[in-house]
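Known limitations

Structure tokens in this collection are predictions and should be treated as such. Users comparing against experimental data should check residue numbering before alignment. To illustrate the layout, the record for Thiamine-phosphate synthase is reproduced below. The input appears on top and the generated tokens appear beneath it.
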Amino acid sequence: MRRRVCEVQTGNLPCPMGCGFSFGDDSMTHVLHVLSDRARGAKVPLEDALWLAALGGADVIQVREKKAPALAVFEFACALLARIREAGASARVLVNDRLDVAMAAGADGVHLAAKSLPVAVAREVVKRAGGGLVVGCSVHSIEEAKAAEAAGADYVTFGHIFPTASHPGLPPKGVRELARVVEVLSIPVVAIGGIDAGNVGEVLATGASGVAVIGAVVEAADPRAAAARLKEAMARSPVTPKVPFPTLEGGMRRARV
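Generated tokens:
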């Protein structure tokens, strides 16, 4: 069946289309994703850095431990989830690549990469398990972005936008290509790669739904303050997201009909 995207973007009432989620006052704000990366030299313990980022206002924390075994990722995700929830922070936690770990840990979703399960397969697994998990996907071209949306992705990350230590030697996509992706998709597009408080305004001017960062927050001496500064810079953008992230008690979820 075709998926229907809720077109209601303001207000605090349930969607009149009956899709099951609502848009609060923050629905038109941009989302900040903070990703983990042990290779990037965090100045504080990585779990602490991510927890502090959540306290600083990060909307999504992605556990991105590509070289760690499943048990280590599971234990890390569980510990981080417990700390974030005990602190009363509103950040959602996603697990990169490992849908099984995301489900076992009680995370809010999974973020898939090129060598992960296909989006359509992950979507079917989530559906069979009762739904409720967001399924995101990394893309690097308009064609990949369209394919991810057609397969059932809730959102995509697109990049890298600027030069970044995560992809040395590879040319950045730039904001013009980001704008093209935002224009053709009807799901949220989150920009990634070399983004910081100094250039985030240029990124959000494309209509992107938010940004994902590693170094700008995780490598900071004070990740909480760094996340707060980045959120403040994002709040100054005069451009609202083309497609806002939906919010729902218990996780980010989209309707599928």
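For this record: Residues 88 and 133 are 20 Å apart (CA to CA). The domain at 31-235 is CATH 3.20.20.70 (TIM Barrel). Please report discrepancies through the issue tracker.
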